[in-house]
Amino acid sequence: MHEFVLQAVGDDQQQFFRTVHARTLNNLNHSYLLPVDHDEIQVSYPPSLATIFLDLGTGSGTWAIDIADEFPRAEVIAVDLAPIQPRQVPPNCTQVSLFSSLPSPDRHSHPNLTRRFELCDIDQWSIPYPDSHFDFIHARSIHIGIHNYPRFLHEIARLLRPGGLVLLVEPTLDPSPPPPSLPPMPGWASLWETYRACLRRQLIDVTVPERLADLLAATAAFENIIVRDGNIPVGFWPQDPHLLTVGQLQWMDYELFLPALRPFFLCSGLPPSTVDRLVRDAQHDLYHPSYQPSTLIHIAYASKCY
C-alpha cells in the first residue's frame, strides 16, 4: 500500500517536467508520452446539488475552474500529472501536489489546503481519498494513460458516495472515417492506425471509448447508465454557425495533437523519418480533406448504486 504526502506546488516546478524530443512531458508517469506544454493548455452540467467534485486528468484545469465558478459553494478538486494549471483559481478549487510518502491529511481540518490543484499518477496508485468522499467525478480523455481501466472504474466507485455521479468522456481513436462510398484518407488513416498499434504495445486497451457503458456495468457498482455519442464535425465545412464553431475548434485540436504525438512515436521505437512522414501526411489530409470529416466523442454517465 502506497502512502502519500501533500506538497504545495511552488515557484520551482522543474521537478515535475522532463524534455523528450523537444517537447515538455510530465515527470510522474513515463508511460504517458503526450506533451504538457503551452500547446497542450490550448487543447482543451453536473447537478446543482453536488457539493464535492473530483476532476481526474484535469489538464489545463478549465473544466474544474468553470465548475467552481458555476457552483461557488461546492468544493472542486482537480488531479493531473503535471502542474500546468493557472495559479489564480476560484477559492473553492483545490490545488495541491501528491507524492508517495505520508498519509493524506484531513482536508476538513486543514482549511489552508484550498485554492489548489493536485498532482497524482492515477494509473500507478490508489487515488488517495477516503471512501464515499465525492458527489461527482469527471474523467475526460485520459484512458490512453490508464493500463487497467476496469480497476480505474472500481476506484471511482470507491470514491463516490452512494447516489454520486460519474461522467466519462473519451474520444474515439479512429476519428474521421470515410463515408461508405469513399476511400480513407491514407495519411490520416495511417497515423491513427500507428497510434493505436503503439498504444496496444503499451498494453492500453484502445477499445475503451466504445465500451464505456459495458465497462461501467461490469463493475456492478453503477446504475442508470446512460451513453451519448457526439458526432463532431472537423474543419470548416458546416453551414450552421454553431456547428462551424465546433468544427473549427475540433480542427484546431487535431492540428495541435498531430505534432504532439512525435515524442510518443519516437519513444515507441519509430525512426524519426517515419514519424516525420506520419505527421506530415496526416497534416496534409487534415488541411486538404477529400471528404467532410467528422469524429465521435463517447460520453457515459451513471450513478453509484445505493
From TrEMBL:
Please state the span of the N-terminal signal peptide per the UniProt entry.
none
Pfam families documented for this protein: Methyltransf_23 (PF13489)
Any one GO molecular-function label of the UniProt entry = methyltransferase activity
Source organism superkingdom: Eukaryota
Q: Which CDD domains match?
A: AdoMet_MTases
Please give the InterPro entries that the UniProt record associates with this protein. SAM-dependent_MTases_sf
Q: What is this protein called?
A: Methyltransferase domain-containing protein
